[in-house]
Structure formats: C-alpha cells, structure tokens
Amino acid sequence: MRKLNFTRIIKGSLPVLAAIALLGSVFTLKSYADGELTGKTAEEIVAMMNKGWNMGNTLDARDGNSSDIYSQETSWGNPRINREMIHGVKEAGFDTIRIPITWYKFIDKSNGYAINPDFMAHVREVVDWALEEDLFVIINVHHESWVNRTDIDKSYKEIGEELSAVWSQISDEFADYDQKLIFEGMNEPRAGGADYEWQGNPACYEAVNYLDQVFVDTVRGNGKGHNGERVLMVPGYAASSSQLVLNSIKLPQINGETASNIALSVHCYSPYEFCLTDQKNTFDPNNASDNSDIKRLMSSLEISFISKGIPVIIGECGCTNSGNNNVEREKWFAFMGEQTAKKGIPAIVWDNGANKTSGGECHSYIDRKTGEMVSPELIAAFLSGKYAEPLAAAEDVTYDFEPFDNGSGKLTPMSPDIAGFITKKLANQSKVNHTEGAVVGFSLKVTTYTDKTAAMDISRFAGKNLKITAWVSSKDTDTVTMSLTNNSADYITVNTTSDWQELTIYAAIGDGETLLEFKGDEDTEFYIDDITLTMVDSLEVVSDGKDSNVDSKNGNSGNGSDEPGNGYVTEDGTPVTVIDGKVVIIVMLSAIVGIAILGAIAIMIGKWKKRDKKKS
Q: What would the 3-class secondary structure string for 11-27 be?
C-alpha cells in the first residue's frame, strides 16, 4: 500500500487553497445573520409582512421522545420539516411564516433551564430555510405547560424566571439575525385547566402583563446584535380578541415609556362556531351576525393600538373545513383578508396539517410533504381579499324594525343585526314608532350604552348611487347626525324632539367598507325608524335648505357647505351645491374657459373673413 505524504499534499495544495480563499472573499456565501434588514421601526416591519402561514402542530407538538430532537415535530401526525414545504409557503404567495415552538421537553430545569443545544441548532436550521425563501420569520414559546399554569395569577414570578432564562438563550442564539426574524414572547398565556381558562380574570390579565414585561426586558437587555431593534410581539391574556382582554393590556415599558419596536399579538377565530366547530358551516360577509365580531375587532385594534403607533399582528386565524364547505370558507378568507389589509394588519393563517372534513380543527392549506397548496382558492381569497363569486346583488330595502314572518308562519323580531347594524347593545323600542299602519310599533333605540352611536354596514351597495332616508326622534331636545364613514363630507344633522324628523343623504358608495352611522349628542337616547336605502341613477338634491333645524354637507339638506358641486349633480348632470339655504347651479370653470376659447376662435375667424373680403 502506498504511503501518503500529507505534508507534501498540503504544501502542493497551498496555491489552490489560496485561490479558494480569494474567491471566497469575492463570492461570500449568503448568511442569514448578516444584518441585511436593519434600522426599521416596528410599524415599518409590520407593513412589509402582509399575509402569513403557521407551521402548526409541528415543532410545537408536545409528544415524542426528548432524546430525539426530531420526534416531537412528527408526534402529532405531520412529517419532518423539509425545504420543499417552506418553499411552497413562499410560492403560494405568503410573505411571513410563523414557526410555533414548544421547548419544555428540551429544557433542563436542573441546569439553569439550559436548552438542548442540538434542538436549538435544529430550530436555527428551520429558521435559516425560511429566511432563504425571503420570508419574515416569527418564533415563539408555544404549548408550554410551565407558562399555562392553572395558578398563573399567583405563580407569575416563578414563570417569569424560566421565561427570562429561555429567551436569554434564544436571544443569544439569534442575536446576529436581522429584523426579518421576529420574537413572540408567548403564544396564548392563560390559566390552563381552570374553569375560566379562556376568559381569565383581572388577576390573570395582570400576570400576563407582567410576563410580557419580563420578555421585553430580557431581549432588550441582551445587548447583542440586533436584539435592541428586533420586533417583539406581546399578547394579551390567551392572545384573546375579546374587548375585555384588549382593554386590560398594559404594554411593556422601558424607562417609563412604552417600549419601542413592539407589536401586539392577537388571535382571531370569529365567528367561533364557524371557525372552530362543525356547528355552523356557512358564512355571509353581508350578515352582521357573521361579520360583526371581526369588524368590531378591527375597529378596536385601530383605535386602541394602531392609531397610537403600536402595530398589530394577527398571529393566528382561520376557519375549519366542515363538510367540504370551501365555498363558505372562501367568503370568510376573502372577508378576513380584506378587513385586515384595510387596517394594515398582517394576518397569519393557522395550518395544523389536518386535511379532514369534520372535527372542528381541520386547517390544512399547504401539503407538508410536497409544499403544494391544498386549497388554492382559499389562499387566493385570503391574499387578495376578494371573492371568486360576487356578493349578493344589492336591493332597495326599508327597515321598519317591525316583527316579520320568516316563512314559518310565526312573527320573528326584527333584530338590529338583520338590518346590518354592527354596534352592540342596540335594541328595539316598543311603542315609539314612525311606521304608518304598524301593528306592534317598534323603532331602534340608541342610548349612552352604545356611546350614542349606531353603525350600519351598507357595503353591499358598493358602486351604487343611493338615496338614504331615515326618521329620528328623541325624548328631549337633542342633535342626531347621520353620516357615511367612507366620506366625512356626507352628513346631515337635525335637532330632534319627540316629533319624528326625516333625514336624507344622496351618496355614491365606494368600494370597501361603508358604514351608515347615527350619532347623538348630550345624554339622552334617540330613536331611529324606517331606514330606506334606494338605488338611483343620479344624485339629486331635493331640499331647499329652509329648515333651520337642519344642518348638512354636500347638498343633502340645509346649509353647511360652500364647496362648488361637492360631487353631487341634478338629474340632467349639472353640479349643484347649497349656499345660504338655496340650491345653486354651478357652472364648471373648465366649461367657462372652453366657451371663452370657442368665442375667441369665432371672433378671429370672423376677422379673417372680413380681411379676405377686403382683399378681394
């Protein structure tokens, strides 16, 4: 056997090694810890994230053998994570991937909560695969029994000790990763197993606020790499979308001010019966009983957080497959996609790999082996926020709040949500009625409990010209304003009394959400009746503005605007406005200029003809 001379081989290879080193200095392999995305605010990062996909029931599964770092991710029926699957997420059109991770099987509590380095390396491997696809990546602590303790309201400091130890190690491991990597402190922190597990109570809410602060202090205090600017997601109790929980959230502070670069994490499976059970398998985006929770959440998130510079990420959402009801699910995904996009909220669909048709937790959108889309039409609807099928055609309608026969031969109460009202706590008022010939006599009552506001969704009339009429009254002298949310110029205000008064608006309804709002002043309640929505070919002003009790804008009644035309026209197409209580016909400047130019040309032609006659 020939004996190899390694010294000679190495010496002979030096020129080659030098050349490789030189090439390496020119063609550096891409590293996902290079800090390519940096210096951005949380609002800027969130604006780039768009729609996302959850790798659920994989690294977050709770079974498997702790001695095998791969057994956990397959223990709930999904295959090993592979590049094809993650590539498929990007190919499907998603810009963000959330990688839920359960750590406790790989945490050594006897050794300072040390995380198994092999498991940490595997997590890093998966994160790198996702970053190779140019995805934003979210990692978290997910199904942690040590977080979701029944006594979370009492043991939060003990939980915080482990939470800090875990995030300290994760922060070290990924310190040099840029802002494409996002940390989410906890998944759905709650009192696991308690009767109030998903509702919580004030003590539980405070415990979660405390843990959010621990998480932010740990990452920001790490002081390494990009951890000082990394976007950190913090949830409220159970990441709930309930108003009670949202109101309880106290955002983490640093030096007495709200910490920078944080985002609120919220989950949304609404309506619950449709999204997570088989009890209801239809969804109507035009029906307030189906859409009101989502709309309420969007409005609340905007008012309480987004408008104050705190971006929001819906970390989980989705609706279960119930009897192959993909037509109905497509409507839901389009509606959720549209609503979140309008508010600038990234929404991340929950996928647990359960490609079934019953059971209440059937969320499969990407094939875990091939990366192919399971239901392309659902993903397309979610990403675009548009339905494959148009919504039901709009029809002229009057809502008189009287009981009606729904076909069963029995009278059904005319609830506000049937009329499209999304405001909670609205109720019918008996014996206060405007409807002529009413047998029972009902109207809609608006009180201080609803902030003196009632909002009605009329988005189904998008692209139509509407004449909107309603009758209002109150027990005391009050003012009531009827307006459209998509155009602040469309309003009419009336001083109400116990006598019924008519309000009328003519408006062109644009795309997207349009709410017809009624808002009162002072501390008295008011009543609404006989709301009529009529489609018209053109927008016509019918009021002469002589009623001193009425104030309006855009020529809907009375005075209040002096902008020429305001977008409204008479039946023959002439722009109009209301000035000093009279309808005034406005001649557009362009028309005047045009006539002047034509006149000038005519005069010049006449002069040329006279000159030619003289020459002849």
A: HHHHHHHHHHHHHHHHC
